[in-house]
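Objective 1b of the project was to move from sequence-level analysis to a structural picture of ligand recognition. The entry below was assembled by the postdoctoral researcher (A.K.) and checked by the PI before modelling. It contains the amino acid sequence of the target and the SMILES of the bound compound, nicotinamide-adenine-dinucleotide.
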Amino acid sequence: MNEAEADIRHAGATSGFGRLDTSFPVVTAVLASYTERAAAPLRGWRVLAVQHLQSSTLPLMEALCRAGVAPGDITLIGKAYSTRAEAAEVLRAQGVRLPGSVEMDDPAVSYETEIGAVVAAEVARMARNRWAGRLLVLDEGAIAGRALLGHPDLWRRTHVVEQTTRGARWAAAVPRPFPVVDVARSEVKQHLEGPLIAESMAAGVRRVLHELGQGAGTLSLGVVGYGTVGRRLAALLAADGHRVVIHDSDAVATAAARGDGLSTDDLPKLLHRAQVLIGCTGVPLLDRTALIRLPRPLVLINGASSDIEFPVWTERVPSRRLPSDHDSPRAPWRHHYTLAGPVPHMLAAGGFPVNFYCQDEPIPAPRFQVTRALMLAGAFQAVSQRTPGLHRLADSAQIMIETAFRELT
Ligand SMILES: NC(=O)c1ccc[n+]([C@@H]2O[C@H](COP(=O)([O-])OP(=O)(O)OC[C@H]3O[C@@H](n4cnc5c(N)ncnc54)[C@H](O)[C@@H]3O)[C@@H](O)[C@H]2O)c1
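Corresponding predicted holo structure:
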């Protein structure tokens, strides 16, 4: 048992969800600041959370409960590719509902489709229940936001916090009939979480390249998407000695890459130069039709979220799987695949973000608490937000979290 597992088991063995006060001072600081005036500001609220279910989820859930939410009123749908069984066990023992699955029904379809269906079913269940209370949603990629659009009866009592840029962009583009607090694009999330994600992503890239026999020597790496994640990841991989070429559809991001001393190219040229393609965009980049037109094989790596960057899901069948130590046919994130057709591209980690490919949690819980603390602050802000639409995370919350996190590190 490694240290993180021991921590989680310890948390489960003692009362409560974890060791909020002793190990998670940033989350604790947020909780204290919002419960100063009202002891249980979230009493009577239901929570629907779509989240990476890891050990750092425990202090966030514990904080919600300390703020008044009953554990039985929390429904947490963990992303299958990032769920830690030990953390799920602790939450289940506390009475939290965990309807998600840790495997896919069918790896040959998009994971977004599968998790979208689970979340939609939960939202429909809530709508059917004729329950009159209010709903706090902690969303990832606007998966719950999309499902809620089909239930106008829930809109007036729903308050949302969004964790990802992809979800925030969706929320900015459609009319939102409920308040959405945009944690994703808060400055503090970008500059405190960004380096943590990039480091964990670089570790995942190194690992999959090694497993795919590309670990030694200098490679031509094409990084598409020079945003919060891509920019930092590119710097780390360039420091490893690789030739990194950037493509971004945004002129400002492209200029930033050049300013950082990296070469940039349009996508067709980059695809001809690169041996490895790393998608850091949050949107579908290359489908099968585009891939089979390329002159030589690429290693395809997702440096973003879910299995979005390379929509080649039908290739995730046992016959296309590369040999591995894992016996998990319905967990495509544990396998690498070769794509059918004239150009044998390799799809690393089933097209899922490679920072979750490693066995251990990609970012230790005490550091990833910064994101959990931001979501907690977003939750407190969301429940008091009356106006539908997208709301920036309050500066005061950002300053408090930054200060507490800096003290920790
Ligand atoms: N796996 C994780 O742990 C983790 C953590 C944080 C963020 N993410 C995900 O990483 C992705 C990127 O996040 P970010 O914060 O860097 O976003 P960002 O918005 O800062 O950067 C995305 C960049 O991609 C560019 N882009 C978008 N579409 C493009 C296209 N078709 N071609 C070329 N460039 C394109 C944009 O111009 C932008 O510069 C998101 O999907 C996010 O949800 C994953």
